[in-house]
Specification:
globular; about 140 residues
């Protein structure tokens, strides 16, 4: 199933939540301060990969680890694969009242006809009061 072609108003969000994209990750892509939890931000980043939204991927990355020089190659790669689904496996902290947290997930995609998976336990922290991706735990 090719997720990037769905109607953002009628279909569930790319991140797998049962909300329309515009009411879920689309809102966060417009204003990342409304990612109230680390999981919200992680899901919005997955959706940004599906959409190859490099600007959001950079903006939602911690300033100390932001890969600005790799932005073009990240976008090129994100466009070259077919995203299948996201599975959130576990969260540690990362609530609205926390300052840090971690989200373990699997992101499935097809690359060159082969089903691949990114399995990561990602660290998130608040920077200037908003959740950002720090890196792998």
């Amino acid at each position: 199933m090719r997720l990037s072609k769905m109607n953002p108003i009628m279909s569930k969000c790319y991140c797998g939540r049962q909300k329309a994209y515009d009411l879920c990750c689309g809102s966060i892509h417009k204003d990342s301060t409304i990612a109230f939890t680390a999981e919200d931000l992680m899901r919005s980043r997955y959706s940004a990969f599906v959409l190859a939204n490099g600007d959001y991927l950079m903006k939602s990355h911690h300033s100390s680890t932001r890969p600005l020089k790799e932005k073009k190659s990240i976008v090129k790669w994100a466009k070259s694969v077919k995203w299948v689904k996201l599975e959130v496996l576990h969260t540690t902290k990362g609530s609205i009242s926390d300052e840090d947290g971690a989200v373990e997930f699997k992101a499935f995609y097809f690359e060159n006809g082969t089903l691949e998976v990114i399995h990561e336990n990602s660290a998130f922290v608040k920077e200037n009061g908003s959740w950002v991706y720090l890196g792998e735990v």
